[in-house]
Fold:
Amino acid sequence: MAYHSGYGAHGSKHRARAAPDPPPLFDDTSGGYSSQPGGYPAPGADVAFNVNHLLGDPMANVAMAYGSSIASHGKDMVHKELHRFVSVNKLKYFFAVDTAYVAKKLGLLVFPYTHQNWEVQYSRDVPLPPRQDLNAPDLYIPTMAFITYVLLAGMALGIQKRFSPEVLGLCASTALVWVVMEVLALLLGLYLATVRSDLSTFHLLAYSGYKYVGMILSVLTGLLFGSDGYYVALAWTSSALMYFIVRSLRTAALGPDSMGGPVPRQRLQLYLTLGAAAFQPLIIYWLTFHLVR
Amino acid sequence: MMQSQQPYTGQIFQPTQAYTPVTSQPLYGNSFEDEPPLLEELGINFDHIWQKTLTVLHPLKVADGSIMNETDLAGPMVFCLAFGATLLLAGKIQFGYVYGISAIGCLGMFCLLNLMSMTGVSFGCVASVLGYCLLPMILLSSFAVIFSLQGMIGIILTAGIIGWCSFSASKIFISALAMEGQQLLVAYPCALLYGVFALISVF
Structure:
């Protein structure tokens, strides 16, 4: 594609490539045109002609080049700011999933009672990604479950003829606020109990996002089988989720070298885990009962 | 500075005077007949558009990973407008919802695919693939003009069309980004997005 450069700075660069010693063109561009012999005016001329023909305004080219440089500068700035807050590589660890892992994890969330080994496996002090370790937390399931929950809430309200787009936004922001508050409470508890563990914010986000799977199941059962079905599903998924959280966090909160720390601290960690687990059914009930009437 | 001072003759924009014929003509010449055709200059290639559409319409055909190398947004734009037009035929003036949902959906898929794949993906590629796979949804909404989709047949047809769209989209993404073992994982968010479009056409 022929790059049509304009007059002024870009034009002078173009001509500098074509001729060995071009005159600067800021002062007198007509002098630059007619003073050079041979083929020199030709590339400049049809550059001029094309610019004249296509845009009719040399300033537009300068403006376009300036605008594109501003755009790339803005994009770099956004990337830099984003990388300051969120480490994309750490986030990519949580999304390294495959279909077999997701299927097994969903089965585990519904029926965790027969699973034997809850330890997260490490290889040289680096936790294995979810593709290779069933016990590793991931963020794909919580994200998809959250979005599915919001859409399902919209559909449930639509069936009850109480739907409007504002309600959808309200549901989404309510659920998001509860997630953020729970993660902050867990972080505060871990900080106060001075637990030295591998649990980063993303881990806590993953574990508190797993309840959305239970919520979706409860709402679906409630829509299909009425209020009784909703309460039965609520009881089942709450107990399964509590068992899952307690078993997972008890080993994960201690880190790769377990049985560390004095006994009161371990008891504090256990209370923290039990408290977090007991909180889940309340949240599930609070966020879903108004959808199943 | 200047080699020779010339008085200003006021003949800058006189191309017939400044142009001297040289043997090596530039590719995009300076006369009206030598200009490239408009479609080529705009980058719209009908043959490629047709090939990509056929790839979408055959769900069982294996997709070639290189067809998404040039991101083409003209086809998806046409499909979005056609979708809005078929909705208009059914009496629903919802162009705003279609554009808003497609923008949010493309952004979400872009973030998700960048996190899930080894190689990154550009936003234009995501928008292009999702736009092309909207074609079966146009069939659904043109059905909705004639028949009502709120019966059992309508539900089955809607589920089938959503599955077709998301299967094609995930097939193209998988082959273009070389992600193995993740086709259902990519198909599920696509199914959610096309489910929202189907909700618009049904209700």
Observations:
- Chain A touches chain B through 43 residues (CB under 8 Å).
- The mean pLDDT of chain A is 75.
- The CA atoms of residues 11 and 235 of chain A lie 75 Å apart.
